Every structure is written in C-alpha cells, then in structure tokens.
Recover the amino acids of this structure.
C-alpha cells in the first residue's frame, strides 16, 4: 500500500528522508518554510560547514550519494591543537586512515534536493506550517511568497523542520501528555573567517580540525573547498571573559591578540566580523513521544536537537532515516509497527548523543590542552590497536563505528572512562603507559 | 513611581497578586481568558476543592482575608487511611492543633476577585492573550465574546495564567535562551462524588483527608461545606490496572468493588461519573528565566506548575505573591532589583516543591499503607515533640512552617530521611522506638 507522505522541512534530514521514502514507492511532498536555496541566497546564521562521519556516510551510501559527497569533502584526520604559546600539537581522531569530512551544508543540501526531485519528490518552498493536527487530519501551510499551492491530504506526516520545529510546537499545543525539554548552554557562538593566503593556498594545515582550547571557551576552524577556513568562537554569554565584556573594537582586539595570537594574523577582518555576524545560542531539545499512531513522526533535530560539539547533529538525523528505512524493509506496510519501533530504537540514542555532545564541549575546550588527557588518549589508542574489538575509544565508537548505537557508546564510554580514571592515577604512568601487563590488566576490567 | 501593571489571568494567584500590587498604589488591570465565574457557571475539569495550608494562609493574612477564608474552610487534621479490609487508620498531619483546610476553589477565587475590585483593580474577561513581546512593548488580547476593550500599555506584565500559560508560550517563542521543561507522570485523575447522607450529614469523618492507598494508585476524598466529599482517583493511564483497562461498566464495577469496597456504597453515581467526567493528566513545568529586566515576570503555575500530591500548588503561588510584596517593601521603586531578587529566591523553591510533590505521590499511594512507614512517622512525631526546632518532619516543614523555604525543606527532608532509613533497620525498633537514648542518638546526627 503506497502512501501519500508529507515531510515538513527540506533541510538535510527532510531531503534525505524523502529520497528513502520515494525509493520505496511512496508519493512524497516536502513543504519548506524558506526559499529554494538553489535559486536564492541563503541567509547567514547556520554553520556553513559540517563534519560528516561514518554514520552519515552509511546513510548516504544507501541512496548512492556517499562517493559523490566524499569528492567534495575535505578529510580531517585529527585535531590540530593551537596552544597559547603558538605551539601546535596534532591528535589523530582514530586509527591510520580514519577521518571525518568537512563538507558544505549548502552544497550537500542542494544535492539531496536535486536527487529527491529526480525521484519524483515535489518540494514546495515558502510554506510555513501553521496547523498540524494528526487526530483531525488537518495540515495547513501559509505561503509566505503569496503563491497559492493546492493543499493536500497526507496519510503520514514527518516533521523534519529542525530544532525550533513549528510542527513539533503544533503537536505540543494540541496533544496532551507530550514531554518536552529545551535547555541552553551558557555559551553562544560566532562565526569568523580565515581567508585563503595571497598566493591562493590554505593558511593552515588543511586536513585537520583546528582547535584553540582555552578552558571555558574555544575557537575552532574547519577547512572549505575554496581554501578558506570557517572559524567558530564558542564563548560564554556572561562572565569574566564573555560576549558581554567585549564591547569595543579595542576590547576584541586585546582579547584576541592575547588569547589566539597565532590566529589573529590569519583573520584580517575578524574585528569587523565580530560586530557584524550574529551571536547564536546552543540548545538541546528532548521530547517524547516522537510518534502518533501510524500518522505522525518527528525526525532529526525536530526530535532531538543537540549541541554541535561531537559533530553528530546531521549524522544522527541521517541515521534516523537509515534506521527508519530498515524498519520499513522489515515491517512492510505495517506503519504502526514501523513508527513504534523507530521511536523505541531511536529515542534512547537521541538522548545519548545529546548527552555525549554536551560532554564533548568540556573535552574540546579544556581537556585537549591537558597533557594527562593526551597521555590517556595515547593509551586508549594503543589499547584499540592491540584489542580492536574489546577497547574502542568513545570518540571512535561514536564517529567511526556506525553499528554501535549511541546509547551503547555512551554506556561503554562511561565504563571505559571509569577504568582510565584509575589508570591515570597510577604513579609513573608516564613511563609505564606502554607496558603490556598494564594493557592486559585494563582489558580484564572491561565488562561486556 | 506608580506603575501601570497588567496581570494575565484572574485565577487564584493573579487575583491575589492584583490586591498586593494595588495596595502598593499601582494601577492594575487583569485580563482573563475565561468568563466571570461570579456570573457564569464554571466549566468542569479543575479540582473543585484545594488544601489551604500555612503558607497560603500567611499570604492571605497580609491582605486581611485569612480569617474570612478559614470560616468557609473545613479543617483536616490528618489522613484517614482506608485499608482494603475496610479498617481505617488515622495519621495526624502534625502536632495537636495543626491542620490543613479544605476550601472551595471557586469560592476563594470569587472572594479574591471581589476584594481586588474593591481596591480598584479592573478585571477584563474573555480576553485571550495572543501576543506578548516585552522588548517591543507589545501586548495583545483577542476578546472571545466580541466586546471591544480599549488596549492599554503596561509598564510591567505579570503572567499568572497557569500551567499552560499562553503568556509563557509567547515568551518561549519570541525570546532566545529560555530553558523549558514539561513532563507528565504516568497517572491521570478523575473526579467522583460522595454525596451527603439521606439525613443530610457527611458520609465519613469530616475533619480528615481520606486516602485509599493501593500502591500504584489511590483514591482520595476531601470534604466540602455542603456535606459532600469530592473524590479523586489517581490512576495509571496504561498497564494492568489502568484507565486503559476499564472499558465497560462491568470493568469499573468489578474493579471498584474489589479495590475500594468501603467507598463504593458511598458513591451511588460513580459508574456514571467514571464515564462522564474527564480523565485529566498531571504535568510538572520548570522554566528559566522567570523575568525579563523590569518588564515581565512569570508567577504561580505559569512559572512552576506542580503535581497536586503535596497540596502546595496554590500555597506556593500565594507565597510567590507574599515574597514579591516583601521585596517591593525592601527595594522601593527599583523594579529591576525586585524582579531579580524574586527570581533568585523563588526559582530554587519552585524547583524544590515540584520535586517534593512528585515524591509525595509515592508516599500517599504506597507508603501510607506500610506499617514500617507508620512507625517511622510515629518516631518522627515524637522527635518533633521533644526537639521541636531540631527535628521537624518533612511534611510539617512544607505545610506548617511557612518560614522554612521549600528548598531548605527538601534538603533537610533528605537528610532526615537518610537518618530514619538507618533507624528503621535497627532490630527490635518496634519495641525500642520510644527509647530516649535512641532519640538522643538520632538528634546527634542532625546537621544544621
């Protein structure tokens, strides 16, 4: 039984979902609040590049896009840590040959929309969701560009309209017993730019994610195909060093020159950008239920918005689509079971990656500058090399092991961290860290 | 500097707040979504009686209403526990002479509205809040009865429009960095009635709150002035014994006769009521911030909706008003400081009573039927009698000690409960419970 399916939101997740569903033979329409980014200039505000890793690639592979996207991505093999004294240290993300991919959000989204339309998906733009009532089967949009679009009935509606989902809000307002939580971290972010050098090259090592860890805040930079880097300052809203305190150009100049001395010469326009670019906030959203009968489901950020510090927002949303498609494969036309199993499987994983992402902020801004932590990473890497199945570092579980669920990665990560906390307290660990007996003792403690 | 103040919501908290503010000389207008309950019949759905205790009374005292309200209240000195075998046990709430008051929500609200109008407060009814933007100073209402009300500018807006506050939602939609959480417990509730007896008397002991504790659920009953009792069944939505399972009149009859045998003969119409009265859900709301500059504040359930199991929802909202008034006294015209201090003081207390209320559900439905728990209560009552300042049972701190903050009561309650958990494990505690040496040992463990 083929269905009429409506997806709200033509972002990364909505577009990929539409491809999966149309490949299954369903009639799919997408309603998108913004204009067509293939024809209109995108507004600023959302990060322009993203880190695509194995979970996202696996989901793209199933629709035949992985190789094409990898061609327009820049591999980042590890973290390039910029210390205040100007020294740079490199921390590999995983084993030799493992890397994450810096990719342009816009390019990726446009390719997904193109492919969706090739599969017969209709995308309607400037369509703002104003009413969604799955019980009464009412779904209304307001066309913000004045064009009149024939309204359609849908058998099934997916809300893929992001962290501030209008569809989810409708759901919250109209239906009882919807648990909902949104919370902001104390830091906001601002994007800055490192342009290409005068002779047209990258200004820093290209195959790395650059971090300037400064304990309560950090600057990061990801490479773009045009030889620029997009930098993001994650910075407290209030407090001693904060957006609140940097009021004048002199404030900004003094702060940056003292804090990021090696970055300043690479960012000719940073003071202007600091005052021109928006300061954005970072929200986590958890909610339940995600579904209603066989009629409605939340997916991607609309179901589980997370902070960006694990680079998993898009990857998690893409994984939602892949898991859903596997459940369609398994359950056939039984959409009640498909949606129920989708929720049962994905809710704990959405919660887990939300918590992992919050924790990774501390790791990135603070712990990456700590020699003890770097030694711990080295030991864990060695353990992974020697016992590739028994010890997988938490970062690798999340990033390079798409068949380990996020909820499992969180659990195993906690267990491993507890073991390593004890290990790092050992006297002389700096000398004994590569002792095979020690490795054997550590592995004995692993519970499966 | 007298202000033009708008309050959204003419419920218990909005009405009391308006009296406090008008007594301070401010011009106060209230906009209420419903009609005037003094002229129109109230719709069902909200509980018709409430337990007014010392915090609420203290707040009413300051506007001169405490004595008048006590006259139309029914004292409840303790819990009357109805066991499945028909035996009834009485558990006093506190010391001799301490009690809570069953009062009619409607009567109390109408008296507060009358008093507000006597102080010059204007109340506009059928006014639904549609836009609230404190930054742009926009406040719009839609009159649902078709009457046109002149719109007014306000210097300061209080949202007192309850758990599902429209004003708070506007706030959430329009302003960044608003942390918000709503969660439902797995139980819902339904109201039933015990009428007066044929000879016009109360059908049960009048000066008690009756409980039929049945582990995962319970029935309770509060007395009304007209000699009836309002019963409330708190019951899981789903599961073995649940609303979901009671589909037919026979289901309901069998369940009630088996579970509440002594209540059934007192409720002639319960089967009809069970299918006619709504099943309502129970939500907790936590959010932050509650205020914006000197322009906007959430108060009462709009700031901190809680479940009803500690009988503190109204009391907490009234306390919000009293504390705010004390801060006006202290800070004069400095509304930035008043609101900032209001939030700093009340947010931890709102969080604390929310958690206390959730915990008290377990106590009421399950622990009140446990002989060990009853013995613990007896020991704690004796400790309180002997050391009235050093040991105050958690229930008494919340209910009869309006000068102990909820957050303090939560902390001290946890500390005392940990001590009592160890005490109840002592061998022969059933015999030794009143030993003065034991009491001395317990008191030694109390940390202040």
């Amino acid at each position: 039984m083929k269905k009429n399916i409506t997806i709200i939101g033509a972002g990364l997740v909505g577009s990929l979902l539409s491809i999966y569903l149309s490949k299954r033979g369903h009639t799919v329409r997408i309603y998108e609040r913004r204009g067509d980014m293939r024809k209109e200039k995108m507004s600023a505000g959302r990060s322009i590049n993203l880190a695509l890793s194995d979970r996202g690639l696996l989901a793209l592979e199933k629709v035949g896009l992985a190789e094409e996207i990898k061609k327009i991505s820049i591999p980042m093999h590890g973290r390039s840590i910029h210390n205040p004294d100007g020294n740079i240290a490199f921390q590999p993300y995983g084993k030799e040959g493992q890397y994450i991919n810096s990719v342009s959000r816009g390019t990726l989204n446009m390719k997904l929309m193109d492919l969706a339309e090739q599969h017969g998906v209709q995308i309607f733009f400037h369509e703002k969701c104003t009413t969604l009532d799955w019980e009464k089967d009412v779904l209304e949009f307001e066309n913000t560009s004045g064009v009149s679009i024939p309204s359609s009935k849908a058998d099934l509606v997916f809300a893929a309209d992001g962290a501030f989902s209008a569809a989810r809000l409708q759901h919250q307002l109209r239906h009882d017993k919807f648990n909902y939580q949104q919370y902001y971290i104390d830091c906001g972010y601002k994007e800055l730019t490192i342009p290409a050098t005068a002779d047209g090259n990258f200004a820093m090592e290209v195959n790395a994610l650059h971090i300037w860890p400064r304990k309560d805040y950090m600057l990061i930079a990801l490479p773009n195909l045009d030889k620029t880097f997009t930098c993001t300052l994650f910075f407290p809203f209030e407090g001693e060093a904060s957006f609140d305190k940097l009021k004048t150009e002199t404030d900004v100049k003094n702060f940056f020159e003292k804090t990021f001395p090696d970055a300043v010469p690479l960012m000719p326009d940073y003071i202007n950008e600091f005052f021109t670019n928006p300061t954005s906030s970072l929200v986590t959203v958890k909610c339940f239920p995600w579904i209603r009968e066989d009629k409605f489901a939340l997916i991607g950020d609309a179901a589980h918005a997370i902070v960006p510090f694990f680079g998993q927002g898009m990857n998690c949303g893409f994984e939602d689509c892949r898991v859903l498609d596997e459940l369609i494969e398994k359950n056939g036309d039984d959409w009640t079971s498909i949606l129920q199993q989708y929720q049962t499987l994905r809710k704990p994983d959405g919660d887990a990656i939300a918590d992992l992402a919050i924790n990774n902020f501390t790791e990135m801004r603070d712990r990456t500058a700590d020699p003890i932590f770097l030694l711990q990473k080295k030991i864990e890497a060695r353990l992974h090399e020697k016992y590739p199945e028994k010890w997988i570092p938490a970062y690798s579980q999340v990033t390079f092991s798409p068949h380990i669920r996020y909820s499992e990665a969180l659990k195993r990560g906690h267990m491993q961290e507890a073991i390593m906390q004890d290990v790092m307290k050992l006297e002389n660990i700096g000398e004994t860290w590569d002792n095979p007996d020690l490795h054997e003792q550590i592995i004995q403690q692993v519970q499966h």
Summary: Residues 370-447 of chain A form one domain. DSSP finds 15 helices and 18 strands in chain A. The mean pLDDT of chain A is 94.
